[in-house]
Automatic annotation (TrEMBL):
Keyword Repeat among UniProt keywords: yes
Sequence ranges assigned to domain Leucine-rich repeat-containing N-terminal plant-type in this UniProt record: 28-65
Tagged with keyword Metal-binding: no
Keywords attached to this entry: Leucine-rich repeat, Repeat, Signal
Signal peptide: 1-23
Record protein name field: Polygalacturonase inhibitor 2
Species this chain originates from: Camelina sativa
Gene3D superfamilies referenced in this protein's UniProt entry, alphabetically: Ribonuclease Inhibitor
Stated family: Belongs to the polygalacturonase-inhibiting protein family.
Domain of life the protein comes from: Eukaryota
Matching InterPro entries: Leu-rich_rpt, LRR_dom_sf, LRR_N_plant-typ, PGIP
Record's subcellular location: Cell envelope
Stored Pfam families: LRR_1 (PF00560), LRR_8 (PF13855), LRRNT_2 (PF08263)
Length: 332
């Protein structure tokens, strides 16, 4: 019996050693070298303390490795919410199997968006947000044909929006809000080469006339709020569209609201602080709004009666030219 137990313990310990040895081999040596260079470039922050050269890099915090079909190469790098300073290391471009790259909520991350990111041909998800990155939205992003998701919000990016972004064939989400972008919305954003992405351009300094071409697209979500845009934004609407959210508030748009037909799917509509005229169409009372704000415009006439309209308080309607009826004072 004692001999059997000894043999069993020997077998288990040998298996454990073999498993540990195998686990150490999961990390591809080229990826480990690159990751350690990234750590050094970021001044060896405590946030990356788990990046120990003696351990398997696939077990490190802030990254993920793929399975055996890609030889356990690093496929995701997500560095966020840490005390990290410096610039995005150029070595990120030396992780050829990277599909997801995130640098987020790093207020001491500065400099331009790293050009070597253009080498990451497998990249589908890019989020560089809530940092102090400066410079332009880079043209080289259009070289990454697998990109589905781009979030560059809450930075200090400047310059114009590259029209070439519309050529990305798989793009589904484009978020450029909360920067210092200037110039017009590209005409090409009315003809994306793939499906029409959710588009977020709010809180910038964009100006000019809204391109008529945008009326050809069926945006599921579009947010152009808090810019200096002008023109007829009614082109964004249509009864046959599948739009869910439209926010064009705090611009200088001018159009007749009386003629606007809404998609049945539209649940959130914010038009406040523009120069919109006309009246609220009676059929809007049938729309199932979760949010509705037409305040600070030049609307007139009676607010349509109906539960879907009257459940909003006066702040959604006030400061118009001569709008009246509940929840505002009654019409004379």
């Amino acid at each position: 019996m004692a001999k059997t137990m000894t043999l069993l313990l020997f077998f288990l310990s040998s298996t454990l050693l073999l498993t540990t040895s195998f686990a150490k081999d999961l990390c591809h040596k080229d990826d480990k070298i690159t990751l350690l260079k990234i750590k050094k470039s970021l001044n060896n922050p405590y946030h990356l303390a788990s990046w120990d050269p003696k351990t398997d890099c696939c077990s490190w915090y802030c990254l993920e490795c793929g399975n055996a079909t890609v030889n356990h190469r690093v496929t995701s790098l997500f560095i966020q919410d840490g005390e990290i300073s410096g610039q995005i290391p150029s070595e990120v471009g030396d992780l050829p199997y990277l599909e997801s790259l995130i640098f987020r909520k790093l207020t001491n991350l500065t400099g331009h968006i790293q050009p070597t990111i253009a080498k990451l041909k497998k990249l589908t998800f890019l989020r560089l947000s809530w940092t102090n990155l400066t410079g332009p939205v880079p043209e080289f992003l259009t070289q990454l044909k697998n990109l589905e998701y781009i979030d560059l919000s809450f930075n200090d990016l400047s310059g114009s929006i590259p029209s070439s972004l519309s050529s990305l064939p798989k793009l589904e989400y484009l978020e450029l809000s909360r920067n210092k972008l200037t110039g017009p919305i590209p005409e090409s954003f009315g003809s994306f080469s793939g499906k029409v992405p959710s588009l977020f351009l709010s809180h910038n300094q964009l100006s000019g006339i809204i391109p008529k071409s945008l009326g050809n697209s069926d945006f599921y979500r579009i947010d152009l709020s808090r810019n200096k845009l002008q023109g007829d934004a009614s082109i964004l609407f249509g009864a046959k569209k599948t739009t869910w959210i439209v926010d064009i508030s705090r611009n200088m748009f001018e159009f007749d609201l009386s003629k606007v037909k809404l998609a049945k799917s539209l649940t959130r509509l914010d038009l406040n602080h523009n120069r919109i005229t006309g009246s609220i169409p009676a059929e809007w009372s049938k729309s199932e709004f979760q949010l509705l704000d037409v305040s600070y415009n030049r609307l007139c006439g009676r607010i349509p009666k109906g539960e879907n309209i009257q459940r909003f308080d006066s702040t959604s309607f006030y400061h118009n030219k001569c709008l009246c009826g509940a929840p505002l004072p009654s019409c004379k």
